[in-house]
Amino acid sequence: MYRPTFRIGLFNGLSDTILSQAVMTELLDCLVKIDMLQLRAKKCPPIYQSGVRYYREDFGDDDWQDVYSTLAVGYGDCEDLACWRAAELNLIGIPTLADFTCNYLENGKQEFHIFVSIQPCKQFPHGKIEDPSVILLSR
Prior knowledge:
The chain is an alpha+beta fold. Helices cover about 35% and strands about 20% of the residues.
């Protein structure tokens, strides 16, 4: 099996905040697009009917999973689930993106949490935030 790995020398705290956050936005957009391609190519259950659960990875270990990989292992963390959900919504015409918050830990490192940001549109004129991690943790 071919498994590409990105090694990105960022996310080291305050010294590279702006660039790290810009790269995070690009990576999330990329995973949403990959998930959209997969959802178009193969019949997959909707995320909330798939049986997958939220699982938080240890800090510093962060494997990003596409829809197929998340289904195969049965769980995902926040970026896996938020990108999948954003892809689903985009495919039915609701403009969304995977967005994030960033907290700074005592050791100066950055900790991100990823969620779905539903952009203002006809269905949601004021926008909305949806957090698949919270929804799938409680099931």
